[in-house]
Amino acid sequence: MEFTDVVRTTAAIRQFTGDPLPDDVLRRILDNARFAPSGGNRQGTRVVVIRDRDTREALAELTITGSRRYIAQKRIGENPWNPLHPTAVTEADLAAVDVPRATPLLDAAVVLVVCVDLGVVAAFDQDLDRIGVVSGASVYPFVWNILLSARNEGFGGVLTTMAIAEEPKVKELLAIPDDYAVAAVLPLGKPVHQPTKLTRKPVSEIATRERFDGAPF
């Protein structure tokens, strides 16, 4: 595919046909994705490739905590899991949520769990009075490269993080070392429907000249 077609049509795919994603194709996807940049080129990413049904069922079960709070917060008009504003969700609100089946994790051809070695990331924001985001620069370019590479091969997926609310249990399930953080869970497969036109804000709304409050670019 042409580069512009890949970047403009890599959508969040959550419904899959059931067609297989062969190992040789997945290896090619990962082989291309590994050229993503990372801090100091230390390449601290690791991928757990999961096809086993029981493991995926267990992983799907671990999304319930994150999903329940997400849904409960949306119901009362909050931005779910927002780090700036404390939630007003109550235990009763949480108990009232019927969490839907984690369909993408169960129906995809394969699920990838992407981790990053916290011992090699450069977290320049670790001393700031806010939640840290900078260390993601050493893992999320790789995650996005996986999705772009999958699109190029005619497959698709979605970056999910619901299970990370239960990261200790995810680590135990997959034998992930303590020094690693779970960054993303990616179900991949053949899309039931492949969008060809995505809706995004125009450049004039996301870029300004010289200052945050500067003129639109």
From TrEMBL:
<dbReference type="Pfam" id="PF00881">
    <property type="entry name" value="Nitroreductase"/>
</dbReference>
<protein>
    <submittedName>
        <fullName>Nitroreductase</fullName>
        <ecNumber>1.6.99.3</ecNumber>
    </submittedName>
</protein>
<comment type="similarity">
    <text>Belongs to the nitroreductase family.</text>
</comment>
<dbReference type="GO" id="GO:0016491">
    <property type="term" value="F:oxidoreductase activity"/>
</dbReference>
<dbReference type="InterPro" id="IPR029479">
    <property type="entry name" value="Nitroreductase"/>
</dbReference>
<feature type="domain" description="Nitroreductase">
    <location>
        <begin position="11"/>
        <end position="190"/>
    </location>
</feature>
<keyword id="KW-0560">Oxidoreductase</keyword>
<dbReference type="InterPro" id="IPR000415">
    <property type="entry name" value="Nitroreductase-like"/>
</dbReference>
